[in-house]
Amino acid sequence: MPSVWSDLEPLLLQVSKPIQYVGGELNSTVKDWDSAEVRWVLMYPDAYEVGLPNQGVMILYEVLNEVEGVLAERSYAIWPDLEKLMRENDIPQFTLDSHRSVRDFDLFGISFATELGYTNMLSALHLGGIPLFAADRTLDDPIVVAGGHAAFNPEPISDFIDIAVLGDGEEAVLRMSEIVREWKREGRPGGRDEVLLRLARSGGCYVPRFYDVEYFEDGRIKRVFPNRSDVPYRVAKHTVMDLDKWPYPKQPLVPLAETVHERMSVEIFRGCTRGCRFCQAGMITRPVRERSITGIAAMVEQGLCATGYEEVGLLSLSSADHSEIGEIAKGLADRYEGENVGLSLPSTRVDAFNVDLANELTRNGRRSGLTFAPEGGSERIRQVINKMVTEEDLIRTVTTAYANGWRQVKLYFMCGLPTETDEDVMQIATMTKRAIDAGRSATGGNDVRCTISIGAFVPKPHTPFQWAAQESPDVVDHRLKMLRDAIQGDRKYAKAIGYRYHDGKPSAIEGLLSRGDRRVGAVILRAWESGQRFDGWSEHFSYDRWVAAVVEIFEGSPLSLEWFTTRERELSEALPWDHLDSGLDKEWLWSDWQEALAGGEVDDCRWTPCFDCGVCPTMDTEIQVGPTGRTIPLLVNR
Amino acid sequence: MKAPHAQRPVVQRIRVKYAKRGRLRFTSHRDFSRALERAVRRSRIPIAYSSGFTPHPRISYAGASPTGVASEAEYLEMALQDRVDLAEVLIKLDEALPIGLDVIEIVEATTSEFAATLEASEWHFSISAPAEIADQIPGAIATFLAADEVMVERMSKNGLRRFDVRSAVLSLAEQAPPEVPEVTDGNSTTMGERALRSAILEAVIRHGSPSVRPDDLLAALRIEGLASRAIVTRLAQGPFDERAGAVTDPFGPDRK
Ligand code: SF4
Prior knowledge:
Order of helices and strands of chain B: EHEEHEHEHHEEEEEHEEEH
Number of strands of chain B: 13
Low-confidence stretches of chain A: none
Low-confidence stretches of chain B: 184-193
Mean pLDDT of chain A: 94
Helix content of chain A: 25-40%
Oligomer: heterodimer
Largest interface: A-B, 43 and 39 residues
Strand order of the largest sheet of chain A: 2-1-3-4-5
Distance between the termini of chain A: 48 Å
Strand content of chain B: 25-35%
Strand content of chain A: 5-15%
Number of helices of chain A: 21
Bound molecules: iron/sulfur cluster
Shape of chain A: globular
């Protein structure tokens, strides 16, 4: 049964948004099945509307499909309405490109941007008829590969995956394809074990089953060690250098269905060395590697021609930090003047330059909203997290934005940061009110608005806060409520300040999954069995279901939800991800953690000397930044 | 902040007939309009924009078919700021749209009020169902046609609505099924290994208010399990010729 389409089609009239299951997107590829030697299915374990725009999947899909003899298709999480019908009608988890069962493929890559996709992975494996436990799989089952940021601590899902790959995927998937191709050509000697061993020995694949973990009686990890010869003690992340050589996606996928990003994206650099201590993305993607101004311009033009999108997002962890961002913004705005092409820059830097950039990019369009991320409410807490923004900076920046015609400003904060007190959070209200006052006097009017968006902080592996105690949901929720009352109780500001928050309970579960070890796998399985799916969606997330699973599984052991989340760790404790190498020196992370507690700052190694975080020497990488001095030419003959 | 661009004036209006085929019948109207706007940009058709801070491409749609229904006869109109070669635009636009959303014909608009000329649609129902469902069809058609009024209910944005289907149906008949070997429904565990029968229905339904959709007609036949077994295609829409009892070409006046 190569394609499940004819069985699926009659069911689609009965489900919501059927278009998300039909494939056929502009720029999608269906390669000939029989002439391919290595076949990948790439899955983003969330709904299509979130998964399709994912850059990681889109890039690997194209990189793999460009290789002779290798094919890649895509799959996304299936909503419960269709999942139920598929189970009743024996239809497996399928790919969108040729509607084949995911079990037909050699490799099943799943990209975990967050840990909240773990239960959806179990649904997909189960629907696909693939044994949930890696140990139960046969030669007829795909090799299940986890990637994405969450793969930097894949221990909680180590029972369910065959491999985790850390870091940039472009070169890694190509190397893996060659190893699998070679093994298949040889007639699959040694079966599944052998191919996994070959992949593990290549150095770039973490195969959890080749490592054993021992624990102390109190629950802490005693040691993690390889149980096979020649597999590395620590598995290192991959780093792609010279982004100009990797101009992907060249042909971005354009869905028919509505998705969360109705625009194309061009990644203008990778990595970030601002050193925000809470930010896992910044820590694990070092060093900074810029795409050149001309490389960016070429990708924008090619992407617009290939997609017909009317908006381009210039993507990165902190886009205003590109060494030639001013020239890029002006160059692109000049080039597309009068063409109804919108440019957006996801940057939340709190400074006047950022406002200038936003002005430049919207010089022909509407100025709706600007976003800034001070992250912490008081100057003290901002020192702890290394987000060096004074209150004066913030007020001045917001005032500049209002004075330049921006009427709506959004401010991002976190609650529950290490050492945080009630006062730190209440300072958010004081500061925001000052910003509104300043905006009112700068514009001479009353129509300036500010929205506060705040959620609970979750300590992440490979960051200086990996040892920190996560704040309990009760304390987080208490502070969020106090802040709300302080804002909404003040008649002078209640209409001008919007308040959006995420309560602390989902973050507690995210914390368990982020810093958990192999013993958390049983909890994930139990939660999934009791119906948990789509953890990133508040209407599907059930805290009580998760807590019930935790209690049931950890009963009679020293482990608990609190043990994994609100417990502070010691330097001497072996962490579940110590054998996974992000390049960051553990000593450096610890000293930065101590610095945080002392309120000390770290600068950015792009414009100050290297502060020896460990990444570049360990990974043999270097900072790649401009300026190149080049400019963006105008387009002629169009 | 500068004032928004003044948009160039409209110099030509064109009417496009297109099809929604195969898997892409699941495209909703919103999905289609986004895809079309992108295709227009990709193919560099000199579309006119509305003025204002958020200029919109000037495209108007007429009588779009419901999600899940295929169509060989959908229509839209575009305003252009440069004159174009119609044959060239047809090729470029068709190439820029995903396969399954296909451009069939383009004419220059010479009349106004195009949407109002679309008085009725001709629908084709391709049904593949177990014999006990398919065998009820002839009787159900006879009962339906003999009635003066057949009420159905449908959920709309404003809640459950109850309306008559019969008066909007101008014709309804079962066609001779195509010569195909019997297929078995091998994958369905609930249905078991039962033989499937094919049936083809054709109907002409007048547009109006409340609008009667093809699934309303299937519901009005009152056969349990029929609706999910039918693939529906709009074959034509246009002015209704009472004497011939047929839907005619809405581009007729533009071609003269
Ligand atoms: S090793 Fe030095 S240069 Fe490289 S990312 Fe770390 S601090 Fe920056």
